[in-house]
Write a structure and sequence with these properties.
Number of domains: 2
Largest sheet: 8 strands, mixed
Oligomer: single chain
Order of helices and strands: HEHEHEHHHEEEHHHHHEHEEHHHHEHH
CATH architecture of the largest domain: 3-Layer(aba) Sandwich
Distance between the termini: 45 Å
Number of strands: 10
CATH class of the largest domain: Alpha Beta
Structural class: alpha/beta
CATH topology of the largest domain: D-Maltodextrin-Binding Protein, domain 2
Radius of gyration: 22 Å
């Protein structure tokens, strides 16, 4: 696998995707009071991570540590993870005048909470942020331009990031976020149900996907071949659009094109899979729907890498009954890649200390720890640095992730951080959901979504 030389497709140019609301659990930690930093955390967790071993104390030698104690607040939905808390303990030992205060927020509420905090004048110093939202916050001056810090850093190499991830953290050629974690989308399928149905391998084309979904659907047993979610329909439709040769917008991001012939064909196929999906899940979401798949009521399920550990940890009885395959293709392969970033808020009074923290998290060995993990503490995300993705040792901890990484060669993500795209995506969700519920035709729904999108973009409908 040689991802460093892969030229990831850029045709998605002004478009974002809301991974946290579309393809990942709405929360990984409970929303509530700050998690106290604990020096008793087992730092042995840090052993075994792969990646270039940098001098973590001197990643930006020209930026001095504060001369007196300061506290950097880090608001995220991973505040209770073993890896992060271990990294906090290590960081505080290396930088005794910087204390990290972890504040938990549910992923689905993170953006609204941050917006409220900014309006109230009390945001955190650092926030975990979905990559699709960076452009919006950057355009409003809520987060800082990191170019100067990056130029002084031995730990952050802008050219080492997968182009799609660095692009989604960039606005007007300036980098406003450091990509932390990534994921691509693939097909999870129940090997036990496939065997029962006499299907020997996962589908490789749209035609095979439809035929297998039909064969695996047994309504009398409340068993279905596929699962589709109205509120998240846009995100899961995107791969089909790209595979059909379509795009969301023109390359410059100024004109919506998702309602052209390719878009109509892709949406017709995708929404048509509702015939093989449990009707009581139409209005659900991918996080809640994981239970349906884990319990063997759905045979195929499109999701990101987050689902690997979720199934292993939460549904141990399903182990050995499922695996992962690339998404079936049409004209060519295409899938969604997305991820999370770390940003420094403009209102922070400790910007240098905040930089040292996110730079520390971005160091190769620490990124590897937080994404793929170690044998003792495996994780199920992808690193955003090509040097890690190209490292043969990176997937020994969790071999199933290698397939997701290979999917990245035909993945797309927001490369120009259009701050208005999340609003347009919501219109797409609403309209495609109406097709799934039988209230509109595909052509009508896409045309209505495009008209609404043009208004959002400041054009006449």
């Amino acid at each position: 696998m040689v991802l460093a030389s892969v030229a990831l497709t850029t045709a998605l140019a002004a478009c974002g995707n809301d991974v946290k609301k579309s393809s990942a659990p709405p929360t990984t930690t409970s929303s509530g009071p700050a998690t106290p930093t604990s020096t008793a955390v087992d730092t042995n967790v840090l052993s075994g991570a792969v990646g270039q071993k940098l001098d973590l104390k001197n990643l930006s030698p020209s930026i001095p540590d504060p001369s007196s104690p300061v506290t950097v607040t880090f608001q995220s939905w991973i505040g209770q993870s073993v890896a992060l808390r271990s990294l906090v303990a290590q960081f505080e030992k290396l930088h005794p005048n910087i204390k990290i205060k972890l504040t938990n927020v549910s992923a689905d509420a993170a953006s609204q909470k941050l917006a409220t905090q900014i309006a109230g004048g009390n945001p955190p110093d650092v926030a975990q942020m979905d990559s699709s939202e960076v452009g919006d916050y950057a355009s409003r001056g809520a987060i800082i331009n990191l170019d100067d810090y990056i130029s002084k850093s031995k730990g952050v190499n802008r050219k080492d990031y997968v182009v799609a991830f660095s692009g989604s953290a960039t606005l007007n050629n300036h980098m406003y976020a450091l990509p932390m974690t990534g994921e691509s989308t693939a097909l999870f399928y129940r090997t036990d149900l496939f065997r029962q149905a006499g299907i020997e391998q996962p589908p490789k084309t749209w035609a095979q996907l439809q035929a297998d979904a039909k064969r695996l659907t047994v309504p009398a047993k409340k068993q279905y071949g596929f699962i589709i979610f109205g509120p998240e329909s846009a995100y899961y439709w995107y791969p089909f659009l790209w595979q059909a040769g379509g795009n969301l917008t023109t390359a410059n991001g100024k004109t919506i094109t998702f309602n052209n012939a390719a878009g109509i064909r892709a949406a017709s196929f995708y929404t048509g899979l509702r015939r093989y999906s449990p009707p009581d899940q139409y209005n659900s979401n991918s996080w809640d729907g994981r239970t349906t798949f884990a319990n063997g009521k759905v045979a195929m399920y499109v999701a990101g890498t987050w689902l690997v550990n979720t199934l292993n940890d939460q549904f141990p009885k399903a182990r050995g009954k499922w695996t992962v395959a690339p998404l079936p293709v049409d004209k060519h392969c295409g899938t969604t890649i997305a991820g999370d970033t770390a940003v420094i808020l403009n209102a922070s009074k400790n910007k240098d200390a905040a930089w040292k923290w996110i730079e520390f998290l971005s160091a190769p060995q620490n990124m590897a720890l937080m994404t793929v993990g170690t044998k003792k503490h495996p994780a199920s995300l992808l690193p955003t640095r090509t040097s890690l993705l190209d490292n043969p040792a990176i997937f020994k901890v969790n071999p199933i992730l290698k397939g997701f990484a290979q999917q990245m060669k035909c993945g797309k993500v927001n490369l120009s951080a259009n701050p208005k795209w999340p609003q347009i995506e919501q219109k797409l969700n609403d309209e495609l959901a109406k097709v799934i519920f039988g209230k509109k035709t595909v052509t009508q729904a896409l045309n209505d979504a495009a008209a609404a999108g043009r208004k959002i973009m400041g054009k006449n409908a």
